[in-house]
User: Which sequence fits this backbone?
């Protein structure tokens, strides 16, 4: 394809320079301790939870106007259950359903991004991915304080994620901040 412009293919010296780096990564993954591999798998599972929860929330919103796990929090804040609120003001409950849909979609996107980061660059040992995973803690703790304070089941489940994420990330410190395994 002449006349199209410079080639986007890497120069052969760039390929040679990246081969040792790829070999080091592959070697470090094989030498990785079992606890580190287990922590990575648990991070993937932790990342699946908001994806699955948001899908279930979207199904619940479609069927009932509000996710089933948010009904108790809604009743505590509104001082009436969802059925009574719907009968009293359909406009307000439609708006709440719209907010819940937006929240569920944001949670789905956030969960998918976390999964992608953990599955690919985090697994490859990219240090920026370790730092990026801490951002999820803001969403987790925010969820705990917004919904969890009104519903003990949500509080219990969200505190588990609030504690698990930093523990699992801290278990990965040797992998991301040491040059080789001892």
Assistant:
């Amino acid at each position: 394809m002449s006349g199209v412009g410079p080639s986007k293919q890497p120069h052969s010296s760039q390929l040679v320079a990246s081969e040792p780096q790829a070999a080091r990564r592959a070697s470090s993954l094989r030498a990785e301790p079992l606890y580190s591999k287990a922590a990575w798998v648990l991070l993937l599972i932790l990342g699946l939870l908001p994806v699955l929860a948001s899908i279930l929330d979207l199904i619940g919103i479609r069927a009932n106007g509000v996710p089933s796990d948010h009904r108790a929090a809604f009743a505590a804040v509104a001082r009436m259950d969802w059925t009574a609120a719907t009968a009293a003001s359909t406009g307000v409950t439609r708006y709440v359903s719209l907010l819940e849909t937006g929240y569920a979609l944001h949670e789905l996107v956030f969960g998918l991004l976390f999964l992608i980061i953990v599955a690919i660059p985090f697994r490859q040992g990219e240090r920026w991915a370790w730092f990026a995973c801490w951002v999820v803690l803001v969403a987790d703790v925010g969820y705990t304080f917004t919904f969890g304070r009104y519903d003990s089941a949500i509080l219990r489940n969200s505190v588990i994620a609030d504690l698990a994420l930093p523990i699992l990330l801290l278990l990965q410190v040797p992998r991301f901040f040491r040059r080789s395994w001892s």
Notes: Residues 35-176 form one domain. The chain has nine helices and no strands. Residues 11-17 have pLDDT under 50 and may be disordered.
